[in-house]
Amino acid sequence: MILRLVERTVVLLVSLAVSSVLVFAFLAVLPGDPARVALGVNASEDAVAELRRQFGLDRPLTTQYVDWLGGLLQGDFGISYISKAEIGPQIADRFQVTAWLVVTAMVIALLVAAPAGTVMAARHRKLSGLALSALSQVGVAVPAFLAGILLIMVFAVKLGWLPANGWTPPAEDPVMFMKQLALPALSLGLVQGAVLTRYVRSAVLDVLREDYLRTARAKGLRPFPALWRHGLRNAAVPVVTVLGLQLATLLIGAVVVERVFVIPGLGSLLLDGVSSRDLLMVQDVVMVLVVAVLVVNFLVDLLYVALDPRLRVSR
C-alpha cells in the first residue's frame, strides 16, 4: 500500500513537471506578439519593445519558464497582459464557479449511471433493459452544448421554470443559485451519465457471471439483493478508474457550456484570454485545469486501492 502510494506520488509529480513544460512550450511557439496586441497595430516599435521588456518577453524562453513555474509554486500567477490585473484572484474566483458546475454535474452523472447501468445489466435480455440501453446510446450521441440548448428551450423558454443564463453566488441568493445551476449541471451531467452508464453496465455484467454471485443466488438470495451485497463493490473497481477521465471530459465540456449559459467560470476566462491573446492568462488557466485533472486521477488511483484489497499486498 505504502509503496503504491509512493509510486503514484512520483508519477503525479513527474506528470505535473512534464505538463508544465508542454503547456509553456505550446503557448510560447504560437504566432503573434502579446505586446503588439495590447498596444494595437498602430503602436511604434519602441513602444512595443518597451512593453515586451515590461512583460519579460525579451528574455530567453528558459528564463521565462523558470520564472513562471516558480511564481506558480509560490501562488503568484502574474499580471494580465491586457487588463494589467493580477491573474491569481481572477482564477480563484472563476474556479469556484467551475467547481460548483463540475461537481454537481458529476453527482448527477453518478445518480443517473449507477441505477440505470445496474438495471441495464440485470435485465439485459428484457425489454426494459434494452430500452434503457437505447436511451443511453442517444445520450452518448448528444453533445453537452446541444443538450444545454434543448434544456433552455424546454425549461426556460417554453415552461419558464428556470432561468436561461446568469450566475448568482450561493452566499448571495441560494435559491437563485440553485435555479441558475440546474440547467448547465443537467446538460453536463446527463450526457456524462449516459456515457458512464455503459461502463457500469459492462462492469455489472462481468460481476453477474462470477462464481461467487452464482453461489449467493444458490443460497437463496434474490438477484438484486445478491448483487447489492456481493457484487456492486467489485463492479465499482473498473468504474472508478473511468471517473478521472470523466472529470477531464466534464472540465472540457464546461468550457463550452459556460459560454452557452453565460456563466463566469474558468471556461469563460480561458476563451476570453484566447480571444484577446492574453497568453499568460491562457497559460495559467490551462495549467490549473491540468493540475485539477492530474490530482483527481491521483485520488482515483488511491480510491482504486481502497476498493480492491489485492492491491494492498506489499511487494
From TrEMBL:
Any one GO CC term of the record: plasma membrane
GO molecular function: dipeptide transmembrane transporter activity
Transmembrane segments: 9-30, 99-122, 134-161, 181-200, 235-257, 285-307
Keyword Transmembrane helix: yes
ABC transmembrane type-1 domain residues: 95-300
Membrane topology: Multi-pass membrane protein
Major subcellular location class: membrane
Pfam families, A to Z: BPD_transp_1, BPD_transp_1_N
Record's keyword terms, sorted: Cell membrane, Membrane, Transmembrane, Transmembrane helix, Transport
Localization terms from the record: Cell membrane
Family in the record: Belongs to the binding-protein-dependent transport system permease family.
Protein name in UniProt: Binding-protein-dependent transport systems inner membrane component
Organism: Kribbella flavida (strain DSM 17836 / JCM 10339 / NBRC 14399)
